[in-house]
Amino acid sequence: MAEVAARLPHATCYEGDVTNRSGYERVVERAAKKLGGIDVVVANAGVAAQLPLVGGNPDTFDRMIAVNIRGVYDTIRTAGPYLMESGGYALLISSLGAAVHLPLMGGYSASKAAVEALGNALRGEFAPSGARVGIAYFAELETDMTRRGFGTNAARQAFGGRAVSGVAPLAPAIDALVRGIDGRRRVIVSPWWVRPLLPTRAIAQRVLELALGSRVAEAVAIARREDAPLTTELPCPSAIESPA
User: Fold this and answer.
1) What letter does residue 161 receive in the DSSP assignment?
2) Which sign, positive or negative, has the C-alpha torsion 103, 194, 117, 112?
């Protein structure tokens, strides 16, 4: 981020840990003061790991909740007053996993469903101010997070070592984000086929369960032994201001 900011005129880069509440508040306040307010916020904090709900590591669950839910909550809570003042736009990054829930991804799916709920509730709270809210839903994209998540022994047993829906290129998702932010859109998706799955999620869930069948039991047993780490590295131990 600092490298990108250095290439852009008048850009400012700050580094923050969304699990450090007081430190993160100071980062947002510094950014707002430097920029003269906030017009757009993208709440993108998120980590994932395969996790059997029974027999898995509860610390992994707690970490996902701390980053994926509380981190997003603190982002909109802290930046919200600035957005309401400017009539700005908050974009919350959810996931297709909020609508269709894979075995071993219950913790991640629960956290992303919570992000969806936060966005929907925030939309009503923002309405009187003119500020708007969007929610983004992505399927598996070509990222390190996806490669690590589906590269475990348990994932190979359950899904054949590949994403259930296939891996989509990253560039169209970035383009969709840019268009969505520019147009202050309510819903952003990538790939395109994610959109029709959202209102038909109950049917999609049942089809998924039938497709996976008996492979899940052995995959869960493997996952309990494997105790896979988070798929996203967390290099920032505390909220500090970048010198950029």
Assistant:
1) T
2) positive
Residues catalogued as catalytic: 108, 112
Distance (Å, rounded) from C-alpha 217 to C-alpha 223? 10
Residue 225 CA to residue 147 CA, distance in Å, equals 20
Query: Which pLDDT tens digits describe the chain residue by residue (244 residues)?
Result: 778 888 888 888 888 899 999 999 999 999 999 999 999 999 998 999 999 999 999 999 999 999 999 999 999 999 999 999 999 999 999 999 999 999 999 999 999 999 999 999 999 999 999 999 999 999 999 888 888 888 889 988 988 866 777 789 999 999 999 999 999 999 999 999 999 999 999 999 999 999 998 889 999 999 999 988 888 876 544 434 443 3
Domains and their CATH numbers in the chain: 36-226 (3.40.50.720)
Evaluate whether 85 touches 184 at the Cβ level (below 8 Å): no
Measure the CA angle with vertex 153, ends 148 and 155; round to 5°. Answer: 65
- The first and second tokens of residue 34, run together, are 């430097």
